[in-house]
Amino acid sequence: MDPFRIAVAGWGLFIQIRTPLTNNDRHAFIELLKSSLARVQTMEHRALLLDLREIDVANDPEERINAYTGMARLLGAQRFAVVVSSQACAARIDAVLDSTGMRDSDRVLIAGVGDRHALLPALEWVDPPADPG
What we know:
Layout: E1 4-9, E2 12-17, H1 23-40, E3 47-51, H2 62-75, E4 79-84, H3 87-100, E5 106-110, H4 120-126
Parallel strand pairs: 2-3, 3-4, 4-5
Antiparallel strand pairs: 1-2
């Protein structure tokens, strides 16, 4: 299994990091992220769904958390959701987001690893249903 996945969707980017990235992984990740960002920049609605459930970010340094959350700024995301697997990871992400001023457009959710349906609340945040009115 690849250490990460980046997919372009109609609403923006889905990024999943499955294992801590090695230096080689980081290079491949950055290259794929650049090409994906170029495709998404033309979209009217840009959002980021970041799935970090398979890695433990609770003790990561602030710089690494900023690298993850900074992808939303690179994208120019109007909405941003991070999904993690524990309260400790959520608290760490929240603390960093509080210092960046991104709190109005983000959501941090906790969900079990491996449960694809657990991403639905995050998906509903980044791609809200159209207002019928």
